[in-house]
Design a protein that fits this description.
By secondary structure, this protein is α/β, with parallel strands linked by helices. 37% of the residues lie in helices and 21% in strands. It is built from 7 helices and 8 strands; from the N terminus they run βαββαββαβαβααβα. A 5-stranded mixed beta sheet has the order 1-4-5-2-3. It has a 3-stranded parallel beta sheet with strand order 6-8-7. β2 and β3 form a beta hairpin. The longest helix has 15 residues. The chain is elongated, with a radius of gyration of 19 Å.
């Protein structure tokens, strides 16, 4: 299973051990905190992170279904960086100067989204919306009035699905 690191880590019971026989060991809360800290550090540097996990399934199973994704063993994280196009920050700056408010909607993890938004000039530390990132889960929990206010004041939206983008 490969996917969003925070979702898969929540479904992980074991982590691949560093020992020589390759057996998995119980994932302690201390180890989980260590992994979260490392993942969030990478996300804060605009890295997109995926978790790679597995678990044994019967041989006759040809396709995994969502109800089979539990009690996973964590193999590790895969990180990638997709740098901004060199012209993006300048285009965003010019749009802002023209009175156009640029909003970012992404499926990325919130810290990754914020780091990219800062690089692009969409989120600035000095702006009132500087460090604010809302997720689809946050938006879904809002009243219609809160949702309207958020859309007018927040520039960075993360973990947004295509349906919510519409």
């Amino acid at each position: 299973v490969v996917g969003a690191w925070e979702r898969l880590l929540a479904l992980t019971q074991d982590v691949r051990s560093d020992n020589t026989n390759g057996t998995a060991v119980r994932l302690s809360e201390e180890r989980k905190e260590y992994l979260v800290k490392g993942a969030e550090d990478a996300a804060g540097r605009a890295m997109r992170l995926l978790a790679v996990c597995w678990r044994p399934v019967p041989k006759h199973v040809a396709v995994l279904t969502p109800d089979m994704v539990y009690n996973l063993t964590l193999g590790g994280f895969v990180g990638m960086r997709d740098p901004l196009r060199p012209e993006a920050p300048e285009a965003i700056r010019r749009a802002n100067e023209a009175g156009i408010r640029v909003i970012m909607q992404t499926g990325d993890y919130p810290l990754t989204a914020l780091a990219i938004a800062k690089e692009a000039g969409i989120a600035k530390d000095a702006s009132p919306v500087g460090g604010k990132v809302l997720t689809e889960k946050d938006l879904a929990a809002m009243s219609p009035a809160e949702f309207s206010r958020a859309v007018l004041t927040v520039n960075v939206f993360a973990r947004i699905t295509p349906a919510m983008k519409l």
